[in-house]
Amino acid sequence: MTALVLSASADGVTTPPVAGYVPAIKHVFVINIENKGYDATWGPTSAAPYLAKTLRGQGVLLNSYYGTAHNSQPNYVAQLSGQGPNPQMQADCQVYSSFAGSGSGTGSGTPAPGQAVGSGCVFPAGVASLPTQLDSRGLSWKGYMEDMRTPCRHPAANSVDSTQKAKVGDQYAARHNPFVYFGAITGSSECAARDVDLSQLPKDLASISTTPNLTYITPNLCNDGHDAPCVDGRPGGLASVNAWMQIWVPRILNSAAFKADGELIITADESDGPQSDASACCGEGPGPNSALPGITGLGGGRIGALVLSRWTAPNTWSTTPYNHYSLLASIEDVFRLPYLGYAQTAGLNRFGLDVYNSGWNG
Fold first, then answer.
1. What's the Rg (C-alpha) of the chain?
2. Residue 60 placed within a domain
3. Which of 16, 49, 77, 80 lies closest to 344, judged by CA?
4. 249 burial class (0-12, 13-18, 19+ CB within 10 angstroms)?
5. Which residues form a coiled coil (predicted)?
6. SS3 state at 141
7. How far apart are CA 109 and CA 218, in angstroms?
8. What's the CATH number where 162 sits?
9. What is the pLDDT of residues 12-30, one digit of tens each?
10. Domain total of the chain
11. CA–CA dist 207, 189 (Å, integer)
């Protein structure tokens, strides 16, 4: 008999107190690029000057922000659930395998809080995620996946994932769409309305009432910088990231929801790869399903993150160590939600006055 054991707080029963310096943000936007270390993205010779200079000048740069794993897939999952990787996730879920629980888990306050113990890629409905938390509070969310075309698109259960490589006209990657790795989401009739193609974003941004509380955006395999060159002949890498950002980020920043009470976080899933940087921060260590979350080290490397909002001062920076679990905990703070998985880690840094640094009065 297999079992999944989660921590007591992972079911949303208890909500930790939230510091008074967390502003009244009601709309959070998250954009991830792919496989880019801190120096490449944010350094003086960055091939994405709109991101590294123009946008960077409008917000606070978190220069000690780290990925939590290699390869890509477990980093996205970490942002939405606080679940650590297992070997199949570290291999980017070449097979869309169902998660098989084994043994017993660990509870809150232990070195591995709220973890589903076992192996596989698609967590069963009992494993909570940020979207299911938001649903429980009557808050809205949407994932916007470029080139997905068919809503809630994912491989058939336990079949080979055909989206691992880009094709001309179809550069969607399921492994960069964390929503489809939770059975509670894919098993819901709402998945097709909530996990949609990026082309729907402009319509949703047209008014505050149609903008979700959580907007989570994944560009396609060219525009997120993963491929270089791209199958359609574009350069890829940070050059294509830069071009994409110049189109899509102004739409967010000029939206009524962002101007009213929005926060935009731009980061990467991981650094260039486990052989180049598998460093970690924030007390990350071996998990119950993987001794080395970063394959050759404990983390996904230093990647950096940029936060923009009316509560963040332009052209500032923070040296506080953060990672993807910190991001999840910080979003949960915004929406007054309990912490899931490794977002419960004792002493984990969450966005504070180093990020909400504009001198506003709470």
1. 19
2. yes
3. 16
4. buried
5. none
6. strand
7. 33
8. 3.40.720.10
9. 434 667 778 899 999 999 9
10. 1
11. 25
Neighbouring CB atoms inside 10 A of 254's CB total 10
d(CA 271, CA 267): 10
Residue type, 352: G
On whether residue 196 sits in a domain, the answer given is yes
Question: Per the domain annotation, does 362 fall within a domain?
Answer: no
| 118 vs 251: CA distance, rounded Å | 41
Nearest C-alpha neighbor of 52 from the set 226, 184, 239:
239
Q: What's the first-to-final CA gap in the chain, in angstroms? A: 50
Instruction: With respect to residue 359, please indicate whether it lies within any of the assigned structural domains.
Output: no
Q: Which amino acid is at 355?
A: V
Left, alpha or beta for 225 (phi > 0: left; psi -120 to 50: alpha)?
A: left
User: What does pTM read for this prediction?
Assistant: 0.94
Spatial CB neighbours of 247, under 8 Å, sequence gap ≥ 6: none
Residue 263, beta-bridge partner list: 28, 309
Structural domain for 189, as ranges: 8-344
Q: What is the pLDDT of residues 169-221, one digit of tens each?
A: 999 999 999 999 999 999 999 999 999 999 999 999 999 999 999 999 999 99
Q: Six-digit token pair at 323?
A: 């990672």
Q: What are phi and psi of 222, to 5 degrees?
A: -90, -50
Residue type, 30: V
Give the closest residue to 77 by CA, choosing from 62, 101, 93, 64: 93
Q: Which residues pair with 170 in a beta bridge?
A: 167
